[in-house]
Amino acid sequence: MAKRKARRKRTTGRSQRLLFWVLGLALVVCALCGGSIWLLLREEPAPANRTVTSSRREVVLRIAYTPEKREAFEALVADYNATKPRLPGGKRVRVEAVPLEADLLVEQALQNAFQAVSPDSSIWLEEIDRLWQKERAPEALLVGERTHYMVSPIVIAMWHDVAAQMGYPDRMVGWQDLLSAAVRNPDFTWSHPSPTTASGLLAILATFYAASGTTRGLTEEQATAPATLEYVRQLEATVKHYGEGELAVMQHIEEQGRAYLDAFVVPEQLVVQYNLRHPEKLLAIYPLEGTLWQDHPLALLEHPDRTDEERQAYALFKEYLLSEPVQRKILQFGYRPADVRISLESPESPIRPENGADPQQPHTTLQVPSAGVIEVVKNVWWYTKRPANVYLVVDTSGSMAGRKLSDAQAALHLFLEEVRGPEDRVGLISFADRPHERVPLVRVEEGRARLSQEVEALEAGGNTALLDSVLYALERLEALNDTGRINAIVVMTDGQENASAVSREALLKRLEEAYRSGLRVVVFCVAYGRTADMKTLEAISSAAGGFTSTSEPETIRALYKALSTYF
Amino acid sequence: MTKTRAIFIALILIVAIVIGASFIVRRSGTNPLAKVEPLSVRIICALPVEPFVREAAARFNAEGHKLEGRPIQVTVVPMDGLVAMGRWERQEMNPIPTVWIPDSRYLVELVNATYKGTLGRDIFLTGGEYRARPIATSLFAWGIWQSREEVLRQKYGDEITWRDIHDAVLAKGGWPDLGGKPEWGYFKLVVPNPRRNVGGLMAMVAAAGEYYGKTRLEVADVTNPEFQAWLKELMSAVTDFSSFGAYSVENLALFGYSMGDGGQLLESDLLANMAGIQTRWVEPMVIRYPTYITWFDFPYSIWMGDETTAEEKHAALVFEEYLLTPEIQQLAVAQGLRPANPEVPITGENSPFTRWQDQGVMIVVPRTTRMREPDREVLLALLRWFDLNIAGQ
To answer: pTM of this prediction?
Structure first.
């Protein structure tokens, strides 16, 4: 009995060991088989010439776009990426949207920084090809397949009573009416963006056409004729100030309403959007002589290393943009969708007379000159634009010490680089306990080195005599009484007023008077950091037809760059 | 040998066999577990027929056609015929497609002529099973907004000619001088950018033919200073070559009469956009046929070079046959193209040819003078002239 027990025990032990060995080996076999199968079936490594952003599993389509359509474009891209699109071969597609001003977009397109672009106008695509041909061969084209997914005509936005004074709706209003009103009435304020946007370029082309007495066939000779330049100079002299883009203009209109401007040049879409939100409506005037379109092309850039997968990814995104639901969504943003089967007269269309727009307009367009003529117009415009007197008023009180001051200095340097008008003058006033004029107004071309030197020499210390310093700059501009120029003060502070002799009320009264006078001194304020006295700054800028922007050390450079476009 | 050892050795052998087999398979380059690779037919396609070919390709792919057990996968890449021709000639076509469908047969002949110089043979065949065959046809016709057409008819009569358009373009006061409305501005001609759409070049060729009253142009004709001055006046009435780009009628529909009053455009493009134009701008367009007619025949041309395999060439042929079936040719008709298969009628309930007859569409175009294809030197002279005098101005 005991023997049988012992044998059973030995047999059980042997069976257990055998089972252990078998299981162990089975696991090894499974692991080896799995490994072999993985080796067998694994994908080949991605080719070395793929783009940096794409990978074996994903194709990234980088698209640069101009920022006036940021809201719509970013929303469309986000929706698209959320659908987790895939190429027919199974790879994931992801669109990366990069907002860039038109001039930077053109520059970086040539450097193969993205696969596709969507600027505000096809004019920039022609510019890309023109520069590409200069670099490569006369027949080489960088811009490949292109499409339209939304468009919007450029209009003159004005308040109803302003349009009525020009005879609307009994007669059609045009560029000439706008320009005559500006010349006749010193209280009339209008503005157009700088020519780095399609709206700004249109306004400039319209004035050059008006100057040459035609609406088509503008040539380099016509654009540079002395009579043309003189005419444009006179018209540009009526511009209140320029600006970094139509979105910024609309933002100021949102904040200040009709006090900001009587008329301005923007795409129809922004007028529609504004009117959807406000009881006091703007009117979109489609100029009698003709307008241009913001046609928002989407274009593939055919760099030599473009891959078929990137082309497919582009085609997929294009297909998405042109699908009916997306086209209907585009209409809700106030753009005219590219799918012409979608009626602009339908009940859901916001492009309607109640929102200041007429879907049957425009009747005619101005002829777009060639890329070469456009380049000439943009260049000579700098010599015809309204010159400016700008005082940079800079807080150097004790709280500015350290990074704040050094970032502000970098921003001021950038501003000085960006002011390019040959007749523009800039002066520098720093303030702490009291204002100190470091450089009186000087033509930037002549005084850039000295201005830069003084900016570099700024040191922090003392109190904040903000009000006295604004008054000081104002008095200097008043003393000059230079009504032919834009007169402006750009004041920056990070703190609270604590050292001025003049009261806030007295200063505001002086500013209002100066803004209403023929001199029309405009004040732009920069609230630098969280401790800045926003209330006082906003009161100052609104009394003097300007606006207040907030900034941190990281964003101060961008802000001063944007401010430079106003002059 | 104990039972345990036997099992152990057997397992070791199994492992060795699996590893050995996987290495042999990897070295031989075959993969027994891999899916059957599809046969790829990549088509570079002229813009006017691209929607038709793309739709046909989508159906073809969905139907799962096979050749010797391998599925055929068709992809379509849109490219203007002239742009493609430039790429062939500069050897920039990368990758080489299986098939090229240009706008017209003469573009194939021009590319063949280039390759004959280097290869000593045609690279697209003109005879035999793999010859280039049309998949549809279309012709150039005047497309003009109805309100503008009425004014032009009052002034110039029923027939529209390039000379009448030239006269309208020169009207000093614009449309009011012709009897139209002041808000219409000047007469705005629609011509696609010849660098992006061969239709723009064909418009210039047609205008030259009418100017000289002949169908065969010589280089001397297009370099004649008097003709060039006349053509420059005509082309100066185009408002914007950049926005019109390659898709002129699509863009005419989008920008409406603000960008163009009319032009000589491809009938199929006009028909494909007629409904959209009326929806967006309320006003319809009218189609009128010129005296000198230019036809596009969209030849399906299979690349005969070594860059594509015999199977891929054969698969391309299978898709060509599919394109020419009556059912698929009906798709072409629905998009305003005239079918290549003579069995397919262009009239029918949903045919745009029937729908837009009241707007001037002709089911049968009467025998008129057909423009002959110009040779390469004439085309290059016109393009150079365009670059220097219009695009560069």
So the answer is: 0.76
